[in-house]
Amino acid sequence: MKLIDGKKLSEEIYTQLKNEVALLKEERKKVPHLAAIIIGNNPASQTYVNAKIKACEQVGYESTLLQLDEKITEMELLKIIDEFNQNTSIDGFIVQLPLPKHIDENKVTQAIAPQKDVDGFHPVNLGRMLLNLPSYLPATPFGIMKMLAANNIETQGKHCVVVGRSHIVGSPMSVLLARNSSPGNCTVTLCHSKTDNLSYFTRQADIIILAIGKPYYLKRDMIKNGVVVIDVGINRVPSSTTKSGFKLAGDADFDDIADKCSFITPVPGGVGPMTIASLMQNTLLANRNELY
Ligand code: NDP
Fold first, then answer.
1. Residues 146 and 99 in one domain
2. Total domain count for the chain?
3. From the CB of 211, is ligand 1 less than 6 Å away?
4. Residue 211: per-residue pLDDT
5. Looking at the predicted structure, is the pLDDT value of residue 292 above 90?
6. Which residues are catalytic?
7. Residue 62: which domain range?
8. Best mutation site among 97, 109, 192 for ligand 1, i.e. most ligand atoms within 8 A of its Cβ?
């Protein structure tokens, strides 16, 4: 079994990005500027946003963090998004999900200018991805593609089972892996909560991408020997050994399955750091303004 070290790979990407920033400074050009909007005080969202801002500092980007009250109206938020769209100093921005229930996520996603949509969630970017045109790729699937490539994991002709069909992870992942590209050229099965007999599919998989938000879900009897497991899940589970009283667990039962896998990602330290590194790469693309 080989552990896929997302943390290490993300550090390598940060080194490259730092060099790019140094070059931009040398040429007296504008450095990338990422802005993030966060609404309310969901602790997990706060952690994710803080990690993104910290990553900006690490690579030398400018960053802006706008913390908004949970009671903000949809109209007020859309107005702020419009201001960010017009603000030429901001190259790209994100609105951290999930949103409070009274705000329509689709409206928010579609309000962000596709050219600044570094999360890659706007229908224009998702459509361009489907057509194999240059676009911002959603950060988590983009990061996973890089992990597969960096570890020389053969994907062509392999059966990849993606579990979870969200717009931000599972669905774009299935599209990218089915593309005629490298990594890619997989035969993809996309499973979800209505899939009958999920283990029938996972047991046939050469590669499993797991993004369901259910801690320790994937067990030993659900996989075949030598499978590659990419665990996207980030779940808080109670823990008596940490000060906070919780720890992070993936959707796979790592201890139960690791020795049966050829490759596996840990949680934490796997997909999570690569998601942030990919967001940083998208922000550099936005700064260069080359995609559109
Ligand atoms: P969503 O809740 O949006 O989607 C979950 C998906 O899993 C749905 O498609 C759902 O099916 C499916 N699902 C739920 N339970 C089961 C089950 N028992 N069997 C099969 N399918 C199931 O989640 P996200 O995609 O946003 O996130 C998934 C996980 O990944 C979460 O733990 C999240 O925290 C984590 N995450 C991690 C990131 C990282 O950087 N590492 C980035 C983004 C997310 P249905 O559509 O039928 O409801």
1. no
2. 2
3. yes
4. 98
5. no
6. 52, 96, 119
7. 27-113
8. 192
